[in-house]
Amino acid sequence: MEVPSISNSLLFVFLVALSCSWPVASQGHLHAFRRCLSLHSNSYSAISKVVYTQHNSSYVTILQSSIRNLRFTSSSTPKPLVIVTPVDESQIQATILCAKENGIQIRTRSGGHDYEGLSYASAVPFVVIDLINLSEITIDAKRKIAWVQAGATIGQLYYKISQKSRTLAFPAGTCPTVGVGGHFSGGGYGTLLRKYGLAADNIIDARLVDVNGRILDRKSMGEGLFWAIRGGGGASFGVITAWKLNLVSVPETVTIFSVPRTLEENATALIHKWQYVAPNLPKDMFFQLLALLGQTFPELGVNRQDCTEVSWIRSALASGGYTVEVSPEVLASRIPLTRLYFKAKSDYVQQPIPEDGFKGIWELLYENEADRALMIFTPYGGRMKEIPESEIPFPHRAGNLYKIQHLTYWDEPGMEASKRYINWIRRLYSYMTPYVSKHPRAAYVNIRDLDLGVNNVGNTSYAQASVWGLKYFDKNFNRLVRVKTIVDPSNFFKNEQSIPPVHF
């Protein structure tokens, strides 16, 4: 979405809808990998068309096509030896087997929105499997199910559903250019989370290529692995190629509103009370929006003229940064509205922050490095507190009032600018310590944050991984480790924050 400036005044927007250098490797190393691909492929001419090395004229274009964070476009960012853009699962099988044979790591990219660039950057020799060509979506409106390939985007899924039904939707995120492969495997939340939970809560099957090149579905992979990939991050366990979804029902018409308030308009008191109101609203709040807000949050001053009644797909336009008047077809575009440098962090709030606590936040938000900073407050409660924390690896359920996504954006290139802005968000994160969850201080895996701890990508240890693993997964972390130990004991699928195997 477009990133607002708060350099001159502090602005809050309340939106309610039904509710954005080469690794060291010899040329022989690379030739051996390509020769292996030809041996393991049904058709060498077919796979050669989807393999790109630094010598291909299209290499840079393809690499940068899905990079959403400009921090990882510099010449010093480590680049993949090879990019493979498979058109079928057999090409993924060949890529995995040949990477194993030649000691090369795998990174899988579906949309490129991962916040720390782990799907396309690494300090060790690696291959990117870019799933952009695997984006088929099949909707069965009568049975309320869908199959979506992992290279499709959230926007493409929403648009495809809207072409089949006005009263079906899926509870995923608000940014339309995010790829479903990573989004779903980390949990995935949006405006429907209080009604239907996370995207991962509504997944009923999947297809995955494992470390041995086998293509597995839910039955053949077993319930342990199927549990792990729905919220535990798929990149630790294999290459997910498709998801089967339960679609959810929405009204033909929903109501959205956006009400800006500045500090001079009592925004501090409003957001302080919001902490008590938003998590406790009925999960069907969209049915009685005006009456409900009038009873529980009159201070916000929402009037009928602030509200717009639209179809659910048009509410997705609004939450995705578009106006509701544009054609929903824009959701199918893979081109983001903005592309900037950014750094993000996440927190969970379990006790309301006092008004004095917010005053310290505002001081930080008035600093120069916060000119494009955002703090996004996502209310919990509703369905989110009903689902047990062990149902899937995503543990942040009952007991959380809301989640905060801390973001700072900038458009200045260079390391010095990056250090300045990253240091600012680290200071904000430090300031928030007394007001957020503790033991552990929880974080959301889809808002990757390497400040929380980094694995040695050559030999990940349990001790290293538990530093950040307990923050992302809490009590579910050890279960993820057990699944990893069974399905990928050699730790082939690894990155700077992957689940490690443990051998006793």
Automatic annotation (TrEMBL):
Keywords recorded for this protein, A-Z: Alkaloid metabolism, Disulfide bond, FAD, Flavoprotein, Glycoprotein, Signal
Pfam families listed in its UniProt record: BBE (PF08031), FAD_binding_4 (PF01565)
This protein's pathway: Alkaloid biosynthesis
Needed co-factor(s): FAD
InterPro entries membership: BBE, FAD-bd_PCMH, FAD-bd_PCMH-like_sf, FAD-bd_PCMH_sub1, FAD-bd_PCMH_sub2, Oxid_FAD_bind_N
Keyword Nucleotide-binding in annotation: no
Domain FAD-binding PCMH-type: 76-250
MF annotations from Gene Ontology: FAD binding; oxidoreductase activity
Signal peptide feature range: 1-26
Entry similarity comment: Belongs to the oxygen-dependent FAD-linked oxidoreductase family.
Protein name stated in the entry: Berberine bridge enzyme-like 18
Lineage: Eukaryota, Viridiplantae, Streptophyta, Embryophyta, Tracheophyta
